[in-house]
Amino acid sequence: MPGRPHGDELSLPAPEPEALALSQALSQEIKEHIASTGPLSSERFWQHALYHPTHGYYHNGLAKFGAGGDFITAPELGDGLAYCLARWCAPLLAELSAPVILEPGAGTGALAASLLSALDTQNCLPDAYWILEVSGSLRDRQRATIEARVPHVLERVRWLDTPPEESWTGLIVGNEVVDALPPRRLTYFEDRWHELVVTTDSDELVWVRGEAVEADLPVEACQPGYVTEDVPMLAPWVKAITDHLERGALVLIDYGYTRREYYHPQRTSGTAIAHYRHRAHDDLLWMPGLQDLSVSVDFSALAQALHAAGMAPAGFTSQAQFLIAFGLADYAAAAGMDGSPQSLATLQEVKQLTLPSEMGERFQVLLAQRGLELPSLPLNQLHRL
């Protein structure tokens, strides 16, 4: 059983009074729900903590991204990721009739703004840019970001409540979206997998071992006390976003591992993690609603889900290799090497995107297609999945 460290023991910054009140309200709702219906599955707890319509992390309007939030994603570092994605997207968009780009979970809108700007420079804008976003506060921020940076293309942007339900052609572009899907946390006990569930003890939220469940996990993980995760809604989510794509391609970028690495015998505590004020820690129950929760992506399971949904996995590589293959050196060269603030900022961005100690090897890129030939990918590691 995993222990539960407390926020003060982790030296986490104290939240402001307004944020504290918000979290306390959500915690009370969770406790009342437990008192009424029994312990919460980890999936249900994730839904409350991240997606509660008023207090959930992605709905409450508090700062999440960038220097003033809890973490920084690649699009917040600069335009490098979008520049390279545009290089990948442009020839594919040219092959499609009335192409659309669909971005699920667009964060601040930084990637959408940068990608639209880069494609505009290449005279290869899609007919429309759809953002699948359930958070009203994030929609407002995305709209403001796009309007500030590329106001002339705002009319092409449309926000969706649900995945497209009519046939369309185009590209699906997702950055750090799969890791936010609610996981099922599991522990191995007495030769069976048991789900870890959330209950209360002395009015505190705690993890306890629940009922035995079926889980198709590698035998290497079947060790007493082993804790890990799987994501039951991964396949349904993939099917939903790709179901009506008539012809096109998909690129998903996220942190994670192949199945063999994910369930390695030495990875005994799972991959679930919380982010608060740029501090990563494992107290997932601390201050619900105020911290991001995520698990690393099992890219083998993701590729399997894509194949089952009728998408052909076509490429798998590290973020560093993908960016290098699609023009990151040109992006850096355009900023110059004159020691100016802009060139130094770009150099720092490139380092963070590519260095193994930063995002370069920790983040992976998975490509898939339906009826569309993709550009060749150097050092394609698809066989590892």
Please sum up the structure shown.
The protein has 385 residues and is of the alpha/beta class. It has a single domain (1-385), classed as Rossmann fold (3-Layer(aba) Sandwich), CATH 3.40.50.12710.
Integer average pLDDT: 91
Rg estimate, integer Å: 21 Å
The major sheet is characterized as: 8 strands, mixed
CATH architecture label name: 3-Layer(aba) Sandwich
Structural class: alpha/beta
How many discrete domains? 1
Helix content: 25-40%
Q: Helix and strand succession? A: HEHHHEHEHEEEEEEHEHEEEEHEHHHE
Total count of helical runs of at least 4 residues: 12
In CATH, the topology is named Rossmann fold
**Bulk shape:** globular
pLDDT < 50 runs, ≥5 residues: 1-8
Give an account of the 3D structure.
- The protein has 385 residues and is α/β, with parallel strands linked by helices.
- The chain has one domain (1-385): 3-Layer(aba) Sandwich (Rossmann fold), CATH 3.40.50.
- Helix content is 34%, strand content 24%.
- The protein has 12 helices and 16 strands.
- The chain has helices at 17-37, 42-51, 74-77, 80-95, 110-121, 136-149, 234-242, 259-262, 299-308, 319-325, 328-335, 341-354; strands spanning 40-41, 100-104, 128-132, 157-160, 168-175, 184-189, 192-201, 204-213, 227-230, 245-257, 273-276, 279-281, 292-294, 297-298, 312-318, 363-370.
- Strands 2, 3, 4, 5, 10, 14, 15 and 16 form an 8-stranded mixed beta sheet that branches. Strands 1, 6, 7, 8 and 9 form a 5-stranded antiparallel beta sheet that branches. The protein has a 3-stranded antiparallel beta sheet with strand order 12-11-13.
- A hairpin with a 2-residue loop joins strand 11 and strand 12.
- The longest helix is centred in the first third of the chain and has 21 residues, at 17-37.
- It is globular.
- The two termini are 30 Å apart.
